[in-house]
Amino acid sequence: MKAVIQRVSQCRVTVDGNVTGEISDGFLILLGVEQNDTEKDAEKLSAKIAVLRIFTDENDKMNLSLKDIDGEVLVVSNFTLCANCRKGRRPNFENAARPETADPLYEYFCQCMLSNGIRKVEKGIFGADMKVSLLNDGPVTIIINSKDLA
User: Fold this and answer.
1) CB-CB contact of 33 with 97 (8 Å)
2) Among 76, 75, 56, which Cα is nearest to 65's?
3) What is the per-residue pLDDT for 148?
4) Is the CB of residue 78 less than 8 Å from the CB of residue 32?
5) CA 106 distance to own-chain centroid
6) Any bridge partners for residue 85, and if so which?
7) Which helix (H) or strand (E) is 108 found in, with range?
8) N or C, which end of the chain is more exposed by having fewer CB within 10 Å?
9) What is d(CA 12, CA 60) in angstroms, rounded to the nearest whole number?
10) pLDDT tens, position by position, for the chain (150 residues)?
11) Exposure of 89 by Cβ count < 10 A (0-12 exposed, 13-18 middle, 19+ buried)?
């Protein structure tokens, strides 16, 4: 499971002109679910993200976590994070999990974020053509792969 985390001061996702998720200070999480991912990957990744210290403290040091600032999360499914670009000019998405596997794991990841103490978890719509707008704070952008976590 791969996540691109962007520290934001505001973020929203729309589908067909309708807002499906909106947050203020927190993380936009683009989430890619790969073929061999399991609930364990969602648990490890969400636990790490909840305590990742990338918000600044009173000394302008990255010492505060999402939980510390009572931050919010907007999670958007994004199978293109699973792209393999090694050959040719067109990405290969064969590593992406099929929708019948990816959607439940995406939903489970969102539930895990709540279980890890994040009070507000908003979502896009799995598989939809989504428009995401954000005000990146920093900018701070972190990439995490659940397979790299202990």
Assistant:
1) yes
2) 56
3) 96
4) yes
5) 9
6) none
7) helix 99-115
8) C
9) 26
10) 999 999 999 999 999 999 999 999 999 999 999 999 999 999 999 999 999 999 999 999 999 999 999 999 999 999 999 999 999 999 999 999 999 999 999 999 999 999 999 999 999 999 999 999 999 999 999 999 999 998
11) exposed
Largest CA distance in the chain: 48
Query: Hey, what are 22's tokens?
Result: 């909106």
Q: Would you state the structure tokens that stand for residue 45, as one six-digit string?
A: 């990744």
Chain position carrying tokens 């929203």: 12
Which domains are seen in the chain, by residue range? 2-145 (3.50.80.10)
Assign residue 11 a region: left if phi > 0, alpha if psi is -120 to 50, beta otherwise?
Answer: beta
